[in-house]
Amino acid sequence: MTNAALPTLEYLATAVMLLDEQSRIAFLNPAAEHLFEISHSNLLGHPLQAAFSQTDQLFGAMQLALANHANHIEHDLILGTHTPGHRLHLSCTVTPLQMAPFALLLEFHTIERPLKLAREEQMHDQTQANRLLLRNLAHEIKNPLGGIRGAAQLLEQELDKPALREYTQVVIQEADRLRALVENLLAPQQSPHFSVLNIHEVLERVRSVVLAEIPDELLIRRDYDLSLPQLDGDKEQLIQVVLNIVRNAAQAMHGRGRITLRTRIARQVTLMKKRHRLAIMVQIIDNGPGIPGHLHDTIFYPLVSGRADGHGLGLTLAQDFVSRHQGSIEFDSEPGRTCFTVMLPLQSNTASHG
Protein backbone atom coordinates (compact mmCIF):
# COMPACT_ATOMS: atom_id res chain seq x y z
CA MET A 1 0.00 0.00 0.00
CA THR A 2 1.26 3.45 -0.90
CA ASN A 3 0.15 6.96 -0.09
CA ALA A 4 -1.68 6.91 -3.42
CA ALA A 5 -4.09 4.39 -1.95
CA LEU A 6 -5.08 6.66 0.94
CA PRO A 7 -7.77 8.57 -0.98
CA THR A 8 -9.52 5.24 -1.61
CA LEU A 9 -9.57 4.50 2.12
CA GLU A 10 -10.99 7.97 2.79
CA TYR A 11 -14.26 7.03 1.14
CA LEU A 12 -14.72 3.61 2.75
CA ALA A 13 -17.75 3.23 5.02
CA THR A 14 -15.66 0.84 7.11
CA ALA A 15 -13.50 2.30 9.88
CA VAL A 16 -9.84 1.92 8.88
CA MET A 17 -6.67 2.83 10.76
CA LEU A 18 -3.04 2.49 9.65
CA LEU A 19 -0.15 2.11 12.10
CA ASP A 20 3.57 2.56 11.61
CA GLU A 21 6.29 0.19 12.88
CA GLN A 22 6.11 1.71 16.38
CA SER A 23 2.34 1.13 16.47
CA ARG A 24 1.70 4.84 16.18
CA ILE A 25 -1.32 6.11 14.29
CA ALA A 26 -0.30 7.05 10.76
CA PHE A 27 -3.75 7.37 9.19
CA LEU A 28 -7.45 6.99 9.99
CA ASN A 29 -10.34 7.57 7.66
CA PRO A 30 -13.50 9.63 8.37
CA ALA A 31 -15.46 6.47 9.21
CA ALA A 32 -12.97 5.73 11.99
CA GLU A 33 -13.16 9.33 13.24
CA HIS A 34 -16.94 9.01 13.45
CA LEU A 35 -16.92 5.56 15.08
CA PHE A 36 -14.38 6.42 17.75
CA GLU A 37 -15.38 10.09 18.16
CA ILE A 38 -11.79 11.21 17.62
CA SER A 39 -10.03 13.67 15.31
CA HIS A 40 -7.55 12.65 12.62
CA SER A 41 -5.44 15.78 13.07
CA ASN A 42 -5.07 15.29 16.84
CA LEU A 43 -3.92 11.66 16.64
CA LEU A 44 -1.39 11.39 13.83
CA GLY A 45 1.93 10.22 15.22
CA HIS A 46 0.46 9.28 18.59
CA PRO A 47 0.27 5.75 20.05
CA LEU A 48 -2.97 3.80 20.15
CA GLN A 49 -3.42 4.65 23.81
CA ALA A 50 -4.12 8.23 22.73
CA ALA A 51 -7.30 7.00 21.03
CA PHE A 52 -8.38 4.13 23.27
CA SER A 53 -8.53 3.45 26.98
CA GLN A 54 -8.54 -0.35 26.66
CA THR A 55 -5.93 -1.73 24.26
CA ASP A 56 -4.68 -5.06 25.68
CA GLN A 57 -7.02 -7.16 23.54
CA LEU A 58 -6.23 -5.12 20.43
CA PHE A 59 -2.46 -5.33 21.01
CA GLY A 60 -2.81 -9.10 21.41
CA ALA A 61 -4.46 -9.33 18.00
CA MET A 62 -1.76 -7.16 16.46
CA GLN A 63 1.01 -9.34 17.90
CA LEU A 64 -0.60 -12.50 16.51
CA ALA A 65 -0.89 -10.97 13.05
CA LEU A 66 2.76 -9.87 13.06
CA ALA A 67 4.01 -13.18 14.46
CA ASN A 68 2.14 -15.22 11.82
CA HIS A 69 2.67 -12.75 8.96
CA ALA A 70 -1.01 -13.15 8.17
CA ASN A 71 -4.41 -11.57 8.73
CA HIS A 72 -5.86 -12.01 12.17
CA ILE A 73 -9.55 -11.44 12.92
CA GLU A 74 -10.62 -10.60 16.44
CA HIS A 75 -14.34 -11.38 16.39
CA ASP A 76 -15.24 -10.17 19.88
CA LEU A 77 -13.23 -7.04 20.65
CA ILE A 78 -14.20 -4.70 23.48
CA LEU A 79 -12.57 -1.33 22.95
CA GLY A 80 -12.91 1.59 25.34
CA THR A 81 -12.65 5.21 24.27
CA HIS A 82 -11.66 8.17 26.38
CA THR A 83 -15.29 9.28 26.58
CA PRO A 84 -16.38 8.19 30.09
CA GLY A 85 -18.46 5.03 29.98
CA HIS A 86 -18.17 4.69 26.19
CA ARG A 87 -17.18 1.17 25.12
CA LEU A 88 -17.52 -0.38 21.67
CA HIS A 89 -18.18 -3.99 20.77
CA LEU A 90 -16.35 -4.65 17.49
CA SER A 91 -14.77 -7.15 15.21
CA CYS A 92 -11.32 -6.18 13.94
CA THR A 93 -9.23 -7.47 11.05
CA VAL A 94 -5.50 -6.86 11.52
CA THR A 95 -3.44 -7.04 8.33
CA PRO A 96 0.40 -6.84 8.34
CA LEU A 97 1.83 -4.49 5.72
CA GLN A 98 5.35 -4.29 4.37
CA MET A 99 4.99 -0.90 2.77
CA ALA A 100 6.73 1.86 4.69
CA PRO A 101 5.73 3.86 6.55
CA PHE A 102 2.76 1.57 7.22
CA ALA A 103 3.16 -1.67 9.22
CA LEU A 104 -0.41 -2.63 10.11
CA LEU A 105 -3.87 -2.04 8.74
CA LEU A 106 -6.74 -2.23 11.26
CA GLU A 107 -10.25 -2.60 9.89
CA PHE A 108 -13.09 -2.30 12.40
CA HIS A 109 -16.67 -3.50 12.02
CA THR A 110 -19.23 -2.61 14.63
CA ILE A 111 -21.40 -5.48 15.83
CA GLU A 112 -23.36 -3.29 18.20
CA ARG A 113 -26.40 -3.12 15.93
CA PRO A 114 -27.13 -6.86 15.67
CA LEU A 115 -26.47 -7.21 19.39
CA LYS A 116 -28.75 -4.27 20.11
CA LEU A 117 -31.53 -5.78 17.98
CA ALA A 118 -31.12 -9.08 19.79
CA ARG A 119 -31.27 -7.31 23.16
CA GLU A 120 -34.41 -5.42 22.11
CA GLU A 121 -36.04 -8.65 20.96
CA GLN A 122 -35.12 -10.25 24.26
CA MET A 123 -36.44 -7.21 26.14
CA HIS A 124 -39.75 -7.41 24.25
CA ASP A 125 -40.18 -11.11 25.00
CA GLN A 126 -39.13 -10.61 28.60
CA THR A 127 -41.57 -7.72 29.03
CA GLN A 128 -44.44 -9.83 27.71
CA ALA A 129 -43.51 -12.65 30.08
CA ASN A 130 -43.21 -10.19 32.97
CA ARG A 131 -46.67 -8.77 32.28
CA LEU A 132 -48.25 -12.21 32.29
CA LEU A 133 -46.41 -13.25 35.45
CA LEU A 134 -47.28 -10.05 37.30
CA ARG A 135 -50.92 -10.18 36.28
CA ASN A 136 -51.30 -13.81 37.35
CA LEU A 137 -49.44 -13.15 40.59
CA ALA A 138 -51.59 -10.12 41.37
CA HIS A 139 -54.82 -12.00 40.86
CA GLU A 140 -53.60 -14.91 42.96
CA ILE A 141 -52.77 -12.55 45.82
CA LYS A 142 -55.80 -10.26 45.59
CA ASN A 143 -58.55 -12.71 46.50
CA PRO A 144 -57.06 -14.27 49.66
CA LEU A 145 -55.78 -10.85 50.71
CA GLY A 146 -59.32 -9.50 50.85
CA GLY A 147 -60.34 -12.49 52.95
CA ILE A 148 -57.48 -11.95 55.41
CA ARG A 149 -58.35 -8.29 55.86
CA GLY A 150 -62.03 -8.99 56.32
CA ALA A 151 -61.36 -11.71 58.89
CA ALA A 152 -59.06 -9.36 60.83
CA GLN A 153 -61.79 -6.71 60.93
CA LEU A 154 -64.37 -9.21 62.21
CA LEU A 155 -61.93 -10.51 64.81
CA GLU A 156 -61.24 -6.97 66.01
CA GLN A 157 -64.94 -6.44 66.71
CA GLU A 158 -64.96 -9.51 68.99
CA LEU A 159 -61.95 -8.48 71.07
CA ASP A 160 -62.44 -6.63 74.33
CA LYS A 161 -58.84 -5.76 75.18
CA PRO A 162 -57.37 -2.77 73.29
CA ALA A 163 -53.93 -4.39 73.43
CA LEU A 164 -55.20 -7.31 71.40
CA ARG A 165 -56.74 -4.96 68.83
CA GLU A 166 -53.22 -3.69 68.12
CA TYR A 167 -52.43 -7.08 66.61
CA THR A 168 -55.46 -7.00 64.34
CA GLN A 169 -54.45 -3.48 63.26
CA VAL A 170 -51.06 -4.84 62.25
CA VAL A 171 -52.78 -7.49 60.12
CA ILE A 172 -55.08 -4.90 58.52
CA GLN A 173 -52.24 -2.45 57.83
CA GLU A 174 -50.02 -5.14 56.31
CA ALA A 175 -52.94 -6.33 54.19
CA ASP A 176 -53.40 -2.76 52.94
CA ARG A 177 -49.68 -2.55 52.14
CA LEU A 178 -49.87 -5.77 50.14
CA ARG A 179 -52.96 -4.52 48.36
CA ALA A 180 -51.04 -1.40 47.29
CA LEU A 181 -48.27 -3.67 46.01
CA VAL A 182 -50.84 -5.67 44.03
CA GLU A 183 -52.13 -2.47 42.46
CA ASN A 184 -48.55 -1.70 41.37
CA LEU A 185 -48.36 -5.15 39.83
CA LEU A 186 -51.47 -4.46 37.81
CA ALA A 187 -50.44 -0.90 36.90
CA PRO A 188 -48.58 -1.85 33.68
CA GLN A 189 -51.82 -3.17 32.24
CA GLN A 190 -53.24 0.34 32.17
CA SER A 191 -53.09 1.93 28.73
CA PRO A 192 -50.76 4.93 28.49
CA HIS A 193 -52.28 8.38 27.98
CA PHE A 194 -50.07 10.19 25.50
CA SER A 195 -49.73 13.95 25.31
CA VAL A 196 -47.07 16.44 24.28
CA LEU A 197 -44.65 17.01 27.15
CA ASN A 198 -41.22 18.35 28.03
CA ILE A 199 -38.88 15.63 29.28
CA HIS A 200 -37.24 18.11 31.66
CA GLU A 201 -40.55 18.60 33.49
CA VAL A 202 -40.49 14.85 34.15
CA LEU A 203 -36.92 14.99 35.46
CA GLU A 204 -37.57 18.03 37.63
CA ARG A 205 -40.59 16.33 39.23
CA VAL A 206 -38.48 13.30 40.06
CA ARG A 207 -35.66 15.46 41.38
CA SER A 208 -38.03 17.32 43.70
CA VAL A 209 -39.62 14.12 45.01
CA VAL A 210 -36.35 12.33 45.74
CA LEU A 211 -34.68 15.36 47.35
CA ALA A 212 -37.73 15.76 49.57
CA GLU A 213 -37.37 12.12 50.63
CA ILE A 214 -33.57 12.27 51.11
CA PRO A 215 -32.73 15.94 51.65
CA ASP A 216 -29.35 15.91 53.38
CA GLU A 217 -26.41 14.13 51.74
CA LEU A 218 -27.76 13.37 48.26
CA LEU A 219 -26.74 15.59 45.35
CA ILE A 220 -28.78 15.44 42.14
CA ARG A 221 -27.08 17.32 39.33
CA ARG A 222 -28.69 18.52 36.11
CA ASP A 223 -26.96 18.15 32.75
CA TYR A 224 -29.76 19.11 30.36
CA ASP A 225 -29.83 19.91 26.68
CA LEU A 226 -32.51 22.60 26.90
CA SER A 227 -32.90 22.70 23.12
CA LEU A 228 -34.56 19.27 23.05
CA PRO A 229 -37.95 19.19 21.30
CA GLN A 230 -41.11 18.12 23.05
CA LEU A 231 -42.05 14.46 23.27
CA ASP A 232 -45.24 12.46 22.84
CA GLY A 233 -45.58 10.37 25.97
CA ASP A 234 -47.45 9.44 29.12
CA LYS A 235 -46.11 11.90 31.69
CA GLU A 236 -47.03 9.83 34.75
CA GLN A 237 -45.50 6.66 33.33
CA LEU A 238 -42.28 8.45 32.40
CA ILE A 239 -42.09 10.00 35.87
CA GLN A 240 -42.43 6.49 37.31
CA VAL A 241 -39.65 5.20 35.03
CA VAL A 242 -37.14 7.84 36.13
CA LEU A 243 -38.32 7.82 39.75
CA ASN A 244 -37.80 4.07 40.08
CA ILE A 245 -34.25 4.31 38.71
CA VAL A 246 -33.30 7.35 40.79
CA ARG A 247 -34.76 5.86 43.96
CA ASN A 248 -32.84 2.64 43.37
CA ALA A 249 -29.64 4.64 42.97
CA ALA A 250 -30.28 6.71 46.10
CA GLN A 251 -31.08 3.62 48.16
CA ALA A 252 -28.00 1.78 46.87
CA MET A 253 -25.89 4.74 48.05
CA HIS A 254 -27.77 4.90 51.38
CA GLY A 255 -28.79 8.46 50.56
CA ARG A 256 -25.20 9.70 50.30
CA GLY A 257 -23.74 10.30 46.86
CA ARG A 258 -24.20 12.00 43.52
CA ILE A 259 -26.78 11.36 40.81
CA THR A 260 -26.64 13.11 37.44
CA LEU A 261 -29.70 13.55 35.23
CA ARG A 262 -28.50 14.03 31.65
CA THR A 263 -30.46 14.62 28.44
CA ARG A 264 -29.19 14.61 24.88
CA ILE A 265 -30.50 14.21 21.35
CA ALA A 266 -29.69 10.93 19.59
CA ARG A 267 -29.72 10.72 15.80
CA GLN A 268 -30.50 7.84 13.47
CA VAL A 269 -31.30 5.24 16.11
CA THR A 270 -33.11 1.92 15.78
CA LEU A 271 -35.63 1.19 18.53
CA MET A 272 -37.94 -1.83 18.56
CA LYS A 273 -36.78 -2.68 15.01
CA LYS A 274 -37.84 0.73 13.72
CA ARG A 275 -35.44 3.41 12.49
CA HIS A 276 -35.94 6.90 13.96
CA ARG A 277 -34.31 10.07 12.75
CA LEU A 278 -34.26 11.53 16.25
CA ALA A 279 -34.70 10.23 19.78
CA ILE A 280 -34.36 11.69 23.25
CA MET A 281 -31.70 10.08 25.40
CA VAL A 282 -32.11 10.29 29.16
CA GLN A 283 -29.25 9.06 31.33
CA ILE A 284 -29.35 8.55 35.10
CA ILE A 285 -25.77 8.26 36.37
CA ASP A 286 -24.73 7.59 39.96
CA ASN A 287 -21.40 7.15 41.73
CA GLY A 288 -22.61 4.33 43.96
CA PRO A 289 -21.30 0.80 44.48
CA GLY A 290 -22.63 -0.52 41.16
CA ILE A 291 -24.99 -3.38 40.38
CA PRO A 292 -23.60 -6.76 41.47
CA GLY A 293 -22.33 -8.74 38.47
CA HIS A 294 -24.58 -11.73 39.17
CA LEU A 295 -27.65 -9.49 38.71
CA HIS A 296 -26.66 -7.95 35.36
CA ASP A 297 -28.63 -10.46 33.28
CA THR A 298 -31.72 -10.52 35.51
CA ILE A 299 -32.00 -7.00 36.91
CA PHE A 300 -35.18 -6.28 34.90
CA TYR A 301 -36.87 -9.51 35.98
CA PRO A 302 -39.72 -9.21 38.50
CA LEU A 303 -38.90 -9.95 42.15
CA VAL A 304 -35.13 -9.57 41.52
CA SER A 305 -33.49 -7.00 43.78
CA GLY A 306 -30.02 -6.17 44.99
CA ARG A 307 -31.41 -5.05 48.37
CA ALA A 308 -32.72 -7.26 51.14
CA ASP A 309 -35.73 -4.96 51.59
CA GLY A 310 -36.41 -4.49 47.87
CA HIS A 311 -39.41 -6.05 46.14
CA GLY A 312 -37.75 -6.11 42.72
CA LEU A 313 -40.58 -4.48 40.79
CA GLY A 314 -39.25 -0.97 40.11
CA LEU A 315 -37.07 -1.80 37.11
CA THR A 316 -39.60 -4.31 35.78
CA LEU A 317 -42.24 -1.58 35.68
CA ALA A 318 -39.73 0.90 34.22
CA GLN A 319 -38.90 -1.51 31.41
CA ASP A 320 -42.58 -2.10 30.71
CA PHE A 321 -43.42 1.61 30.57
CA VAL A 322 -40.45 2.34 28.28
CA SER A 323 -41.51 -0.52 26.01
CA ARG A 324 -44.98 1.04 25.75
CA HIS A 325 -43.29 4.18 24.44
CA GLN A 326 -41.47 2.10 21.78
CA GLY A 327 -38.20 2.94 23.47
CA SER A 328 -35.32 1.09 25.09
CA ILE A 329 -33.70 0.97 28.52
CA GLU A 330 -30.17 -0.31 29.13
CA PHE A 331 -27.53 0.04 31.80
CA ASP A 332 -23.79 -0.07 32.23
CA SER A 333 -22.43 -0.59 35.72
CA GLU A 334 -19.14 -0.91 37.53
CA PRO A 335 -18.10 0.07 41.05
CA GLY A 336 -18.25 3.85 41.28
CA ARG A 337 -20.42 4.40 38.20
CA THR A 338 -23.79 3.09 37.08
CA CYS A 339 -25.54 4.60 34.07
CA PHE A 340 -29.10 3.79 33.00
CA THR A 341 -29.87 5.01 29.48
CA VAL A 342 -33.47 5.46 28.35
CA MET A 343 -34.08 6.13 24.66
CA LEU A 344 -37.45 7.56 23.62
CA PRO A 345 -38.23 8.05 19.92
CA LEU A 346 -39.44 11.40 18.65
CA GLN A 347 -42.33 11.37 16.24
CA SER A 348 -41.96 13.40 13.07
CA ASN A 349 -44.51 15.99 14.19
CA THR A 350 -42.54 16.76 17.38
CA ALA A 351 -39.01 16.24 16.01
CA SER A 352 -37.70 19.73 15.34
CA HIS A 353 -34.04 19.95 16.27
CA GLY A 354 -31.26 21.63 14.39
Characterise this structure.
The chain is α+β, with helices and mostly antiparallel strands. It folds into three domains: 3-110, PAS domain (Beta-Lactamase, 2-Layer Sandwich); 115-188, Helix Hairpins (Orthogonal Bundle); 192-345, Histidine kinase-like ATPase, C-terminal domain (Heat Shock Protein 90, 2-Layer Sandwich), CATH 3.30.565. The protein is built from nine helices and twelve strands. A five-stranded antiparallel sheet has the order 2-1-5-4-3. The longest helix has 47 residues, at 112-158. The chain is elongated and about 100 Å long. The mean pLDDT is 80.
Secondary structure elements and pairings:
Layout: H1 6-10, E1 15-19, E2 25-28, H2 30-36, H3 40-43, H4 56-68, E3 72-80, E4 87-99, E5 102-110, H5 112-158, H6 162-186, E6 195-197, H7 199-213, E7 218-223, E8 231-233, H8 235-252, E9 257-271, E10 274-286, H9 314-324, E11 328-334, E12 337-345
Parallel strand pairs: 7-9
Antiparallel strand pairs: 1-2, 1-5, 3-4, 4-5, 6-8, 9-10, 10-12, 11-12
Helix pairs in contact: 5-6, 5-9, 7-8, 8-9
